[in-house]
Write a structure and sequence with these properties.
mainly alpha, 0% strand
Length: 93
């Protein structure tokens, strides 16, 4: 069951500043949702993104060995990259 379906059985209480409430309410209206639906869907979306970044990925032993070998191998000299990194950035000019 997805986090956005099923019977609503839990209550979530929130306190906000006036400014936070105003901006959240405006965003909910812009999406055609009521405040509760907007907050719940936004929180679930953010939670799903965060949890997706926390997942571990399994690979075969051969692929792992190839990955480790690539990390351990010496890097090749890249003249264009060396030039780019030796120049001041656009923010430093």
């Amino acid at each position: 069951m997805s986090p956005t379906t099923g019977a609503k059985q839990r209550r979530l209480n929130l306190r906000t500043t006036k400014a936070q409430h105003t901006v959240i309410a405006r965003a909910a209206t812009a999406q055609g949702k009521n405040l509760t639906d907007f907050i719940v869907s936004s929180a679930c979306e953010k939670a799903e993104q965060l949890l997706a970044d926390q997942r571990s990925f399994a690979i075969s032993g051969a692929r792992w060995n190839a990955f480790v070998a690539a990390l351990d191998s010496p890097s090749s000299h890249n003249k264009r990259l060396a030039k780019l990194l030796s120049e001041p950035s656009i923010l430093e000019r």
